[in-house]
């Protein structure tokens, strides 16, 4: 049920962009216990004037390859699980497509199950029995 938004600089190959999306999904499945079929992403490429960031915020040296990953997901994961996810995602993105770990910015936004409608104008997780959520 997570909705992932990924923002990066224009000019990367389709393979690079695909690898970023795949790494994010893999990290969520491996660490955050997201079902593998629960795959919803919006990937947006921006020109330089629309990617604004501080290249040294919190003493992390970012480059123009910076990628912003925002994930809206159900509340309930503890701090250790989130920290493990951040580390695993940075590692996966470093492995493929070769992104520097310093260039991975992640924001988790937590919500409740009743905040989702996957169609038909229904609160999907309120209507469906729990065993059908996966």
Task: Give an account of the 3D structure.
- With 134 residues, the chain is of the alpha/beta class.
- It has one domain: Macrophage Migration Inhibitory Factor.
- Helices cover 29% and strands 22% of the residues.
- It is built from 3 helices and 4 strands, in the order E-H-E-E-H-E-H.
- It has helices at residues 14-31, 79-95, 124-127; strands at residues 3-9, 41-46, 67-74, 104-111.
- Helix 1 links the parallel strand 1 and strand 2 (41-46).
- Helix 1 (14-31) runs antiparallel to helix 2 (79-95).
- The termini are close together.
**Helix-strand sequence:** EHEEHEH
Outline, from the CA principal axes? globular
Count of extended strands: 4
Radius of gyration over all CA atoms, rounded: 16 Å
Q: DSSP strand (E) fraction?
A: 15-25%
Largest sheet: 4 strands, mixed
Mean pLDDT, all residues:
93
The strands making up the biggest β-sheet line up spatially as 2-1-3-4
Please give the domain count: 1
Q: CATH-wise, what's the superfamily? A: Macrophage Migration Inhibitory Factor
Q: Which structural class fits the helix and strand makeup?
A: alpha/beta
Number of helices: 3
Q: Roughly how many Å apart are the termini?
A: 9 Å
Assign a percent range to the helix content. Answer: 25-40%
Contiguous runs where pLDDT drops below 50 for at least 5 residues: none
Provide the CATH top-level class: Alpha Beta
Give the name of the CATH architecture. Answer: 2-Layer Sandwich
